[in-house]
Amino acid sequence: MEIAADMVHEHTGLSRGVLLRGFMAQPGYATVKVDVRGAVIRDGEILLVQERSDGRWCMPGGWADVGEFPSAMVIREVWEESGFEVRPQKVIGVYDANRSGTPLEFYHAYKLVFLCEITAGRARPSEETQAVDFFRFDNLPPLSTNRTDERHLTDVLAHLRDANRPAAFD
């Protein structure tokens, strides 16, 4: 771990201590992390939340928890971040988050995007989100691209236009 931290430090200038702590936080065999996102549509507009961490917008979602079904994770994440109860309807796509243009530093991640239907609730921000709103696909706010990027939204829109479209995957 120390040698790896030294090597990355030499090539990037990132803090050796920060790198070493990051490497030590992920002991054992390297495996991917999983991020789930809910594509929630109302009246042709998509639900986005404004992240407190960067002030940008994304579909509600977050890191998967061990032992939880992917569909249950997206239900929980949408509720926590937006105030809406949803029912997942289908998988829009499975994406390699490290190949979308902005790699997630030293960890590899897959992103699962689910098309969801609102069943109850009302818009409300959370500890992680400062705003919740619906947007037309042709009038989107600045995106938090590590969380939601143009490809994800293009695929969501394509599924809305063609309900028989198969899930996208890398």
Which features does this protein show?
single chain, 170 residues, alpha+beta, Nucleoside Triphosphate Pyrophosphohydrolase, eight-stranded mixed β-sheet, 8 strands, 26% helix
Can you tell me the overall shape? Answer: elongated
Which architecture of the largest domain per CATH? Alpha-Beta Complex
Q: What is the mean pLDDT? A: 91
How can the largest sheet be summarized?
Answer: 8 strands, mixed
Total E-strand runs: 8
Number of domains: 2
Q: Say which CATH homologous superfamily of the largest domain is assigned.
A: Nucleoside Triphosphate Pyrophosphohydrolase
Helix content: 25-40%
Strand content: 25-35%
CATH topology of the largest domain: Nucleoside Triphosphate Pyrophosphohydrolase
Our count of helices gives: 4
Secondary structural class: alpha+beta
Question: Spans of 5+ residues with little confidence (pLDDT < 50)?
Answer: none
CATH class of the largest domain: Alpha Beta
Estimated radius of gyration: 17 Å
Instruction: Report the oligomer.
Output: single chain
First-last Cα distance: 30 Å
Helix-strand string:
HHEEEEHEEEHE
